[in-house]
């Protein structure tokens, strides 16, 4: 019985604290986050993540980078909320958030610029050689050559991205074959 009374006594305090967090401005939420208040962090995220995402998307079309920057921004907010000076330096909490996000976006662009650009792997269907059947006269002409000359010409064809297999000339996909 006594535990129930205590719980009833505590619930109004929890409700009031929750209502206070919900009605707090962003600067107050950042100060609460600095004290480790997860509820304040959730409210801050819920309020600011949508507009922050829109602003990031205006500067970066890559959704993956935007998502990573947003995540990095809120991790930084959680870790550095105590350093938010707010009104003491005529700054706003949303301005502080945007500064963090903008700097994280620049960092992401720098990371991407340092990564080597790898050519996209061709689709599996493109790996199969495209076959172009040459005319009977060309085929006959190739096989009518002496063995040494045949070898030299086939090597030249291979260097150009072509191979001779049986009675067909195969064009290997290298981006130049059509």
Question: What is the secondary structure topology, with strand pairs?
Answer:
Blueprint: H1 2-23, H2 26-34, H3 38-59, H4 63-80, H5 93-114, H6 124-127, E1 130-132, H7 136-144, H8 147-159, E2 162-165, E3 168-171
Antiparallel strand pairs: 1-3, 2-3
Helix pairs in contact: 2-3, 3-4, 4-5
The count of strands amounts to: 3
Strand content: 5-15%
Oligomer: single chain
Q: How many helices?
A: 8
What are the low-pLDDT stretches, counting only 5+ consecutive residues below 50? Answer: 124-135, 166-178
Major β-sheet strand ordering: 1-3-2
Mean pLDDT over all positions: 75
Q: What is the makeup of the main sheet?
A: 3 strands, antiparallel
Structural class: mainly alpha
In percent, how helical is the residue content?
55-70%
Overall geometry = rod-shaped
State the order of secondary-structure elements, H for helix, E for strand: HHHHHHEHHEE
**Rg from alpha-carbon coordinates:** 33 Å
Give the N-to-C terminal Cα separation: 83 Å
Structure description:
- The protein is mainly alpha-helical.
- The chain has helices spanning 2-23, 26-34, 38-59, 63-80, 93-114, 124-127, 136-144, 147-159; strands spanning 130-132, 162-165, 168-171.
- Strands 1-3-2 form a three-stranded antiparallel β-sheet.
- It is built from eight helices and three strands; from the N terminus they run ααααααβααββ.
- The model is unreliable at 124-135 and 166-178 (pLDDT under 50).
- It is rod-shaped.
């Amino acid at each position: 019985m006594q535990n129930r009374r205590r719980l009833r006594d505590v619930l109004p305090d929890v409700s009031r604290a929750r209502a206070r967090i919900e009605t707090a401005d962003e600067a107050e939420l950042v100060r609460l986050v600095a004290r480790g208040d997860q509820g304040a962090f959730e409210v801050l995220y819920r309020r600011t993540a949508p507009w922050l995402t829109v602003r990031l998307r205006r500067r970066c079309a890559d959704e993956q980078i935007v998502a990573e920057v947003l995540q990095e921004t809120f991790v930084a907010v959680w870790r550095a909320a105590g350093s938010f000076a707010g009104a003491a330096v005529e700054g706003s909490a949303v301005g502080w958030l945007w500064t963090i996000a903008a700097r994280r976006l620049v960092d992401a662009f720098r990371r991407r610029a340092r990564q080597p650009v790898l050519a996209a792997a061709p689709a599996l269907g493109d790996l199969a050689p495209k076959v172009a059947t040459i005319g009977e006269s060309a085929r006959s002409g190739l096989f009518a050559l002496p063995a040494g000359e045949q070898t030299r010409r086939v090597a030249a064809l291979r260097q150009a991205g072509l191979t001779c297999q049986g009675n067909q000339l195969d064009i290997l996909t290298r981006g130049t074959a059509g």
